[in-house]
Design goal:
- There is one protein chain.
- The protein has helices at 22-31, 48-60, 85-88, 98-105, 124-132, 163-173, 189-200, 232-244, 260-268, 306-314, 334-339, 369-381, 394-397, 401-407, and strands spanning 4-7, 13-17, 38-42, 63-67, 70-74, 82-83, 107-111, 136-140, 143-147, 155-157, 179-183, 204-206, 212-216, 225-227, 248-252, 272-276, 279-283, 293-294, 319-323, 343-347, 350-354, 363-365, 385-389, 411-414.
- The chain folds into two domains: 4-19 and 230-414, Enolpyruvate transferase domain (UDP-n-acetylglucosamine1-carboxyvinyl-transferase, Chain, Alpha-beta prism), CATH 3.65.10.10; 22-227, Enolpyruvate transferase domain (UDP-n-acetylglucosamine1-carboxyvinyl-transferase, Chain).
- It is an alpha/beta fold.
- The relative contact order is 0.16.
- It is elongated, with a radius of gyration of 21 Å.
- It is 31% helix and 25% strand.
- Strands 22-23-1-24 form a four-stranded mixed beta sheet. It has a four-stranded mixed beta sheet with strand order 2-15-17-16.
Length: 415
């Protein structure tokens, strides 16, 4: 099994180009199911999760062709309406095929999803939303079965903002008869990107990026060309790494307007963050200052950046408090950071971090995707050598991360 080995102490300097966003590409690829024809994509990242949903689409009968960051999906030959357990268990986002299959074909059988063990992410809101659109839902033997002769517009209210729930039901509603209104929607940039892509395909979606999305159903969608937005979490990871190593890095091909919470918090640590036409330049200006934060749905500070920012706080000048409000199990990286000398204590969904002078290299184990990234940052600033086990999580969400860090001057290799 692959491991990442890092010899800490190098300042990151230079330029890094951000890849397409995994969390945008996955729903966009699922949306191709809605089109009786070929959907063209560019800026697709090279990730295990992308390969997983591609394999799922091919199992349904879609034809996927691509090279590098380009991909075409021809969904005109889909005949199978069952997403099997062996394919869905690898990734929770696989549930995104449910809405498009029911909308276009009137039936779907989708295994309950798997994914990272960072907390409960139930699909109840997806299912209640489909029922509001007229689908009959049964859940048995580990599978969701949904049927509808034709979906009809309806009112859907989310108890909590849910990104995949908003995306799934938005895709279902574009082919429903009449108007659908989704309330308390997720407002993430990836939701907006999906809505824009659906409109390019001929849908009538308005309000994406706000709490209320209105969808007027259309008879069918048509083929289109879609570009995947840059990955704001990958960009944030490199920005935090630049600050933690007291480096100077230009993060290119990113969207600063998608990263307000991250940029704001970095500035509070005393780091220089300059938005320029080429991207965002992050430059250390001295001692790292501590700051408190709470993870919140967009546009708040993203839970997917909590672990990386915790490493920065671990070597900050004073104490800080992190309040995790999204996932109940998202402090699993703390034990590994403690092995490296971090002074962190947990109380429920709060973490108290007392800044230390330095971390020390150690063998550690990654528990999920973002925890893996945090351990890389910890290894970059630690004294000595850090070896990270179970790095297969990284390949789910970061495109060639060790190569990008190496190009910035890090002493890092995959072994």
């Amino acid at each position: 099994m692959d491991k990442i080995e890092i010899r800490g102490g190098s300042k990151l300097e230079g330029e890094v180009t951000i890849s397409g966003a995994k969390n945008a590409a996955l729903p966009l690829m699922a949306a191709a199911i809605l089109v009786d024809g070929i959907t063209e994509f560019d800026n697709i990242p090279d990730l295990v999760d992308i390969k997983s949903i591609k394999a799922l689409l091919e199992d349904l009968g879609a034809v996927c062709r691509g090279q590098g960051a380009t991909l075409s999906i021809d969904a005109s030959a889909i005949t199978k309406l069952e997403a099997e357990y062996d394919l869905v268990r690898k990734m929770r986002a696989s549930v995104l095929v449910l809405g498009p299959l029911v909308a276009r074909f009137g039936s779907a059988r989708v295994s309950l999803p798997g994914g990272c063990a960072i907390g409960a992410r139930p699909v109840d809101m997806h299912l209640r939303g489909l029922e509001a659109l007229g689908a009959e839902i049964t859940v048995e033997h580990g599978y969701i079965e949904a049927r509808a002769e034709a979906l009809v517009g309806g009112e859907i209210y989310f108890d909590l903002p849910t990104v995949t729930g908003t995306e799934n039901l938005m895709m279902a509603a574009v082919l429903a008869r009449g108007q659908s209104v989704l309330r308390n929607c997720a407002r993430e940039p990836e939701v907006v990107a999906l809505a824009q892509a659906l409109n390019t395909m001929g849908a009538d979606v308005s309000g994406a990026g706000t709490a209320v999305i209105t969808i007027n159903g259309v008879e069918k969608l048509h083929p289109a060309a879609v570009s995947v937005i840059p990955d704001r979490i990958e960009a944030g990871t490199f920005m935090v790494a630049a600050a933690a190593t007291h480096g100077d890095v230009l993060v290119k091909e990113c969207r600063p307007d998608h990263m307000g919470g991250i940029i704001s918090k970095l500035k509070q640590t005393g780091c220089s963050v300059e938005v320029i036409p080429e991207g965002v330049r992050v430059c250390s200006t001295g001692e790292i200052q501590s700051t408190d934060f709470k993870t919140l749905p967009y546009p708040g500070f993203p839970t997917d950046m909590q672990a990386q920012f915790m490493v920065l706080m671990a070597v900050a000048r004073k104490n800080s408090v992190i309040h995790e409000t999204i996932f109940e199990n998202r402090f699993m990286h703390v034990n590994e950071l403690q092995r490296m000398g971090a002074d962190i204590s947990i109380s429920g969904n709060y973490a108290m971090i007392r800044g230390v002078e330095a971390l020390s290299g150690a063998p550690v184990m990654a528990s999920d995707l973002r925890a893996s990234a945090s351990l890389i940052i910890a290894g970059l600033i630690a004294r000595g050598t850090t070896r990270i086990n179970r790095v297969y999580h990284l390949d789910r969400g970061y495109d060639a991360i060790e190569k990008k860090f190496s190009a910035l001057g890090a002493d890092i290799q995959r072994i």
